[in-house]
Design goal:
CATH topology of the largest domain in chain A: Alpha-Beta Plaits
Helix content of chain B: 55-70%
Structural class of chain A: alpha+beta
Number of domains of chain B: 1
Number of strands of chain B: 0
Radius of gyration of chain A: 23 Å
Shape of chain B: elongated
CATH class of the largest domain in chain A: Alpha Beta
Strand content of chain A: 15-25%
Structural class of chain B: mainly alpha
Oligomer: heterodimer
């Protein structure tokens, strides 16, 4: 009798063990797939753009971006554009304003979701980048992006900025000037804006200028209905 | 012979040995090492293993945002670019090209990365 009980006990123990071993990797993978919550990070770089100060016709941010990152500045469909100026008019009221549009550095980026090679990724500090070592140029991310923020490099490039590697056959977009940010500097567009309407800073630091301002004024995300939690926010739209 | 005289003789003998050491590490092709120098590891080790350092560091730099000042392609180029044309890829005896051509290994680093010394690039593009 005791013997049978022991056997049964051992059988149950082993079954539990086997089940745990079988389930554990699944749980781990589930955790990996969903990534770490964005709120854990002490840093999340973002921008607050004041459209009231953004002058119509002024393209200083675009020019600065092109120069910093070595873009041609051309507007052909095959030319890279990391940031563009958009002028919007509300037809019913006649209210007209301008704003710069670029990668919105979403907390839940659709480009990262669709990337088949893991080249599109979000850094710990919220900057969404393309790892060109892994990019195969399939352009799924360009289709997934609701902001039309990404470009594809169609032709071989020469004489790139040593800080900004770019190359044919890969997708690229605004990097929030990651090479400057890592050195403690501001992105080129924020620095170039003559009206200081681009405020760059750490959204997760409650004492930063941007966090204080975002608390005190009303700001909006473009296509907030998509729940992407963008890092670029606009004031006055 | 006095002691300083012996020391001098020893020094002369040792200095005579140096070309032999070089001969052991000499390469069967012409290579322009630029400014050269020895910052990461010794040249023989680097010749064999530089790609492992680069491929490991690139993920840390790009994906985790942890750049390493020492193992940084820009740093390699800074010292090893030719003093004549500021490039590691411009000529057949340029630092990267010379070995890679001899070994028939294609390098695609410089399709995206700049093969030009950053200080020279900045000087040229300063406006």
């Amino acid at each position: 009798m005791n013997d049978i009980q022991d056997q049964r006990r051992n059988f149950l123990k082993t079954s539990v063990g086997v089940a745990a071993v079988a389930i554990a990797p699944g749980l781990l993978l589930f955790k990996v797939a969903h990534g770490k919550s964005d709120d854990d990070s002490k840093v999340r770089w973002g921008m607050l753009i004041d459209t009231a100060n953004c002058a119509e016709g002024c393209k200083d941010c675009v020019t600065a971006c092109n120069k910093e990152n070595g873009l041609s500045g051309g507007l052909a469909p095959t030319d890279s554009q990391w940031i563009r100026k958009i002028e919007i008019k509300d037809v019913s009221t006649g209210h007209q304003f301008a704003l710069p549009m670029m990668c919105q550095h979403c907390a839940e980026p659709p480009c990262v979701d669709v990337c088949p090679t893991g080249a599109s990724f979000k850094r710990y500090d919220g900057i969404v980048l393309v790892d060109k070592h892994r990019c195969i140029g399939c352009r799924y991310c360009m289709m997934a992006c609701p902001y039309k923020a990404r470009s594809f490099v169609h032709a071989p490039l020469h004489d790139q900025n040593p800080d900004v590697p770019r190359g044919k056959g890969t997708v690229e977009s605004c990097t929030m000037c990651v090479h400057r940010v890592d050195e403690g500097k501001q992105p080129a567009c924020a620095e170039a804006c003559p009206n200081k309407s681009i405020l760059f800073g750490n959204l997760h630091d409650p004492n930063s200028e941007i966090a204080k301002k975002i608390r005190s004024v009303s700001s909006a995300q473009v296509r907030a209905d998509l729940n992407l939690n963008t890092g670029i926010r606009y004031q006055g739209i | 012979m006095s002691v300083p005289g012996l020391r001098l003789l020893l020094l002369v003998l040792i200095s005579l040995c140096i070309p032999n050491v070089w001969a052991d590490q000499s390469l069967p092709y012409k290579i322009d090492i630029g400014r050269g120098g020895h910052c990461v590891r010794d040249p023989v080790w680097m010749r064999k293993n530089h790609m492992h350092l680069l491929i490991h560091q690139r993920d840390l730099t790009v994906r985790e945002g942890k750049p390493n000042k020492e193992i940084d392609l820009r740093n390699c180029v800074e010292c090893h670019a030719s003093t004549k044309d500021d490039s590691v890829i411009a000529r057949s005896d340029s630092f990267c090209v010379a070995c890679h051509r001899y070994e028939a290994v294609k390098i695609d680093c410089f399709e995206c990365h700049s093969g030009i010394r950053k200080s020279a690039w900045l000087q040229r593009n300063a406006k």
